[in-house]
Amino acid sequence: MKKLETRRRGRRDRLAQTDAADLHSPVWPGLAGGRFKPLSPQEVDLVDEAALSLLETLGLSQATPSMIGRVVAAGGRLTDDGRLLFPRGLVKQALAGARRDVVLYGQNPAHDLDLRGARVHMSSGGAAPGVFDIDTGAYRESTLKDLYDAARLVDAMENIHHFSRSVVARDIEDNRLMDINTAYACLVGTSKHVSISISDPFHVGDIAELCYALAGGEVAFRDRPFLTVMACHVVPPMRFAEETCEILELAVQAGFPVQLISAGQAGATSPATVAGSLVQAVAETLAGLVFAWLVDPQVRAIFAPKPLVADLRTGSMCGGGGEQAILMAAAAQMGRHYDLPTSSIAGITDAKTLDAQYGAEKTLAVATAAHAGSNLITQAVGSMSSLLGISLEGYVSDNDLVGNILRTVRGIEATPENIAADVIAQVCRGEGHYLGETHTFSRMKSDYFYPHLGDRRAPAEWEADGAKPVGEVARAKTRELLAGHFPTHIDDVRDALLRDKFDIRLSRTQVGRA
Fold first, then answer.
1. By residue range, what is the domain housing residue 16?
2. pTM for the full model?
């Protein structure tokens, strides 16, 4: 026992002397997923054919005049009862022409996200109307400050790669001011890529002007757009959301990447079966893709079928079940089938605190979406209570959770070097253990993910330190970050420019500039 402890001590000493520059991270943005395929090849073909058939024979109602004009000019047809039909030839043309080289740029280029292939990235999300207060745990309405705090927490978390607007600023009643301040709070809170929604077509120009000012001009923003507009362009089943379609068109014309979202609820606004809900979501999302592509063939469009699940006993949404997890994985698989940049919703646990339900439901959904190859997994962190609330400390604890999931996505990498047969032979002929091997030292940080908050100590040591549950540890770390992490990627000159042009409701003190 004494010999083993001596070896461990020596190993720790040698590790302390290791040059950190030689160590590689065990996980990183863009790890390749796509190995999990809940649909067989035959089922993929059936879903594809059913979606194309629905678009061609049923179409969608409530199309805008601009959409009707563009689709009809490209070969579509408007029926006598007002349904816009999308011939499969047109859909396939849009699929063939859609961009695969989409990069979601950060204000800091170190945070650029390449969405080609099955590269996986983790994101916040939700647009929740409330938060679970970090001090009391009580549910309350969310504020603009909560949104800014969420953004800067994500900014500090290395395994959360993207910030999607996670709460609604309920303390701003005017919709235009809320949209402008939402964009500002997100963009000043993190230098990672940001996604928001816009509530009114007339506000698109305001958000564009804000982004152009930050980028140093319209041309600079169009070259490296750092904000995506999320567009729920349909009101399921198979109806367009007219105002959102106008927002979508204006956003594409202004140079924004767009996320094309269908979010029907199985058993309520989409079929109760998982397969039927999937087909409807794919068809509705493809309709949005065709429209965006007709507006601009170079649009950076993200295929985002995000069908949700209802508890059919009550009719209320439930995000934590196995049905939601497998539905999202199947939606991601369809994105891989079309080879499109794809976003999925996962991690929308029904839990109201950082408990076993929270961890189990979030891990199940996020892991399946990641292994299915979703490029951007929104609601993966912080989101809880079936999208009604977020937890700020959840971002910090979920940084560990998604880091572990990304490690499983990375896989085993069975190469001759990694199998290390020569090391096995050397150890077996030598001391009989691997603790002192150079091979062990060289791989322990590149191959193993170590949680920041997860406790791996012996029970006695944990108890002596106060026996704190992970939620309590996460709250302490969150308070520490909120007290000291104020991103400065937007300098005072540009911040002053924005404040001159717009009614910014976050004070300079609140963003750490006073």
1. 2-30+418-443
2. 0.94
